Amino acid sequence: MSQSQTSWDEQIPEQALTxxxxxxxxxxxFEAERDRIFMGAWHFGCHVNELSEPGAYxxxxxxxxxxxxxxxxAGDIHGFHNVCQHRGNRxxxxxxxxxxxxxxxxxxxxxxxQNGALKGAPRSQNIPTFNIDEHRIPPVRVQEFAxxxxxxxxxxxxxxxxxxxxxxxxxxxSIPKMDEMKLxxxxxxxxxxxxxxxMDNSIEGYHFQLSxxxxxxxxxxIDFSEYNLVHKDNWWTYSAxxxxxxxxxxxxxxxxxxxxxxxxxxxxxxxxxxxxFPYSKCMGTFMMIPLDEEHTILxxxxxxxxDELPEVSxxxxxxxxxxxxxxxxxxNISVQKGLHSLGYDQGRYMIDSERSNESEHLVLHFHRLxxxxxxxxxxxxx
Length: 382
What we know:
Layout: H1 5-8, H2 27-36, E1 43-47, E2 56-62, E3 65-71, E4 77-81, E5 96-98, E6 103-104, E7 111-112, E8 118-120, E9 141-145, E10 148-152, H3 160-163, H4 167-174, E11 182-191, H5 195-202, H6 213-220, E12 228-231, E13 235-240, E14 248-249, E15 252-253, E16 263-268, E17 272-276, E18 283-292, E19 295-304, H7 311-338, H8 361-375
């Protein structure tokens, strides 16, 4: 069964059918998502502490665009395109580093300052009409939000405080040491699945106690009866208190009376997630970066506020990378394959009137954001 474009967004949640399967593999739909969602979205770049000294930089790519985030000697953070203004050569190829002096293009040695301004170009003195000030690298909009640096390719995008009202306060309340976080490690994994398939999997608890042993392990570390999924207009949370009777977590003994951080996740439209696992003493970032209609980079970042990584934090990171993560990835891949079946087009959201811990109302909300962005429907439409 399928529906018209106009009627899908008007469904009663408790009776709603999912987005048609083509939304997860159609090339034209993906190209529309690129242009109408991601090119004007706020993308997590790094924690502000990753740019702790002058010349420190992080390079981020989205589709065929590459952006440099860098702190200058005055302490300001800049974003600018990763491209020389002479012949288009890419300037920096490492993901992270410290550029103590000028940024030098490896092709013809055009040199740029830490704010993207051109400082020198060989033989430019021989060109009478050459004006060095006219060849600054075009800036990319950046914003600090919740201790992190975000960038947006649209200079006219709505600022994050307006787009995500009260979200920063929610992050800081649940992750009080946000400003002290330091990067432990970052891992990119390419998954043969649409970015929305991966997001769908992360924002529902229906499968927690049903899909695999590591999800059952996670459910045992929280008070699953209090698992709560809440959405605002452009952001959402899913959280639960820690199970205070737990004796171990991630294979490590824990004292439930000490640092038993709750399970907390927050998503910022369209693809940024910050999370904290119970007892983990660390924070995770989970970014879904689309490559094409059926391939996505999963970027797992792990951060700690401690100078020395606690044993339970290392165990939690290893467990995520080697146990829970692969279990979820297998589900993502299997779903992507199934969406091509001639025997499937739309499924039924399992949404109850109580919006309980196993209800899929967050999935519907996320799909509505996608649908409305693609079809030009006002986000406030209900």
